[in-house]
Specification:
Elements: H1 7-19, H2 29-32, E1 87-89, H3 103-111, E2 118-120, H4 131-143, E3 145-147, E4 152-154, H5 171-181, E5 187-197, E6 203-213, E7 229-239, E8 247-253, E9 262-267, E10 272-275, E11 307-320, H6 324-327, E12 348-360, E13 370-376, E14 382-388, E15 394-405, E16 410-420, E17 425-431, H7 452-460
Antiparallel strand pairs: 1-2, 3-4, 5-6, 5-17, 6-7, 7-8, 8-9, 9-10, 11-12, 12-13, 13-14, 14-15, 15-16, 16-17
């Protein structure tokens, strides 16, 4: 049995809801019917390319498996292996491309002028999702609502809740919800490396076993059947040895005012599991040496209530995309360099992105005083993120490198990078190059698997 909200708290929340403004509904059915048609992708993105021809029209995405690929094999074959860089952005020509770079990308090019570069390839709009997810997004367009001042949603399941963000009362928060609830499969298991570098070039490696269940992404599930849970997340530390056996369990909530994130930590030294309300916001991420915050996993996760958010509009930006070359690098030594990653393995493409910016609210705090997200128009994945410190200086720069799992289909992480411009260090997440099978999408978890009592029993056997 899952833990439920206490009755007294539920009554108090019910009373609060009577005083709250009404939830705001979605778009008309006529507008929703445009999704997947001649003008719009199922996700709400523009189907047409740009006027310059540097962004092509979407043609249905990548669903065809390359010759030689067998579903369930270790690595995903690069369907674009014959592509060559069209040009390379360096510190010497960065100003020429400045309008299509994030502040963070420009800063990295200037910080490492002799080595950092961005190879730019032909844009391949490979994003695709199952047909039933496309149908779910169309339903969500009509039924989804932002509630609790945008800290919760209602009426959605299966895919992004707000394909028409500009029709919502808070487009910026709607875009972030789309990132958090984008389709990523149902049950997934994979091993992820976490690599932390020092300015001297040494590397500390950690390894995490990640097991996830996305109730929100289950086919035919109704919103009321979710019990306010979007994701079950179970993380077990495999390395380094001093941390091995530590467990983090998270139940991510949908209406985060009705109930905040539920989190538990198992400490093998204490041999007990305990609630962990600190697993949120800017508290340090697991075994990260302070190089990332809890809300930086998956580029951004969790509550948005410490920031004032605004939508800055849509831009054309060179972002990581179709990172199969990176995904197929044989070892981490091939990826990690003394100052930055091996940029010859990276692939950048010109895509339209929604730009969302958050500034810390008065009366609250976060180590990042300002954040800017660059959200891929097609997939709603945050492809790049810049973070500023409390003095107004650009501090940390993130990129999310993805591949399209053409046998599923949906985009999945190949790597997340986070550079600390002040410390001259960087951190890599979500790598699995040396871990055998990339993603196991054939596992099936029931809800009780993520019950904290079950975790306690498993950990102490």
């Amino acid at each position: 049995m899952l833990l439920r909200t206490r009755p007294i708290r539920a009554l108090l929340l019910a009373g609060t809801c009577l005083l709250a403004p009404p939830a705001l509904a979605g778009v008309s059915q006529d507008m929703a019917n445009k999704l997947g048609g001649s003008e719009l992708l199922p996700s709400g993105a523009q189907r047409a390319g740009n006027a310059a021809g540097t962004i092509p029209a979407w043609d249905g995405g990548l669903r065809t498996q390359p010759a030689g690929f067998t579903a369930g094999q270790d690595r995903y074959i690069d369907p674009f292996a014959d592509d060559k860089p069209q040009f390379v952005i360096t510190a010497a020509n960065a100003d020429q491309y400045r309008d299509n770079l994030t502040d963070g990308q420009y800063a990295l090019l200037k910080k490492y002028p002799n080595s950092y570069k961005m190879p730019v390839y032909k844009t391949r709009r490979s994003y695709a999702i199952p047909d039933w997810v496309a149908a779910a997004i169309k339903r969500n367009a009509v039924n989804s609502k932002l509630v609790a001042d945008g800290e919760g949603i209602a009426g959605a399941t299966g895919g992004v809740p707000f394909p028409f963000i500009e029709s919502t009362p808070n487009p910026a928060k709607a875009a972030i919800w789309n990132h958090k609830l984008r389709y990523r499969g149902d049950d997934v298991r994979y091993t992820s490396a976490q690599l932390i570098t020092t300015p001297g070039g040494s590397v500390r490696e950690g390894k995490l076993l990640l097991e996830l269940k996305y109730p929100y992404n289950q086919q035919n599930i109704e919103p009321d059947d979710l019990h306010n849970i979007s994701i079950y997340f179970l993380q077990t530390i495999l390395a380094p040895p001093r941390s091995a056996g530590g467990i983090l369990l998270v139940h991510e909530t949908i209406d985060q005012v009705e109930e905040t994130r539920r989190a538990w930590i198992y400490n093998p030294g204490q041999r007990r599991i305990r609630r962990a309300p600190s697993v949120a916001y800017d508290n340090p991420g697991t075994d990260s040496d302070g190089m990332r915050t809890n809300d930086q996993f998956d580029m951004f996760n969790g509550a948005t209530d410490r920031y004032n958010w605004k939508l800055l509009g849509k831009k054309e930006i060179y972002i990581p995309y179709n990172s199969y070359k990176l995904h197929n690098a044989p070892s981490y030594d091939d990826i990690v360099g003394p100052q930055h990653t091996n940029q010859d393995l990276m692939r950048y493409e010109l895509h339209r992105v929604w730009v969302v910016e958050g500034t810390v609210k008065d009366g609250t705090s976060h180590i990042y005083a300002k954040r800017r997200f660059y959200i891929d128009e097609d997939s709603w994945h945050i492809a790049a993120a810049d973070q500023w410190d409390t003095r107004g200086g650009l501090w940390r720069v993130m990129e999310g490198h993805t591949i399209q799992l053409y046998d599923q289909p949906y985009p999945a992480p190949a790597m997340e990078s986070s550079y600390d411009l002040d410390a001259g260090r960087y951190l890599l997440l979500s790598l699995n190059n040396e871990e055998g099978r990339a993603f196991n999408n054939e596992v099936e978890y029931d809800d009780d698997y993520f019950n904290p009592r079950n975790i306690q029993r498993r950990a102490t056997k």
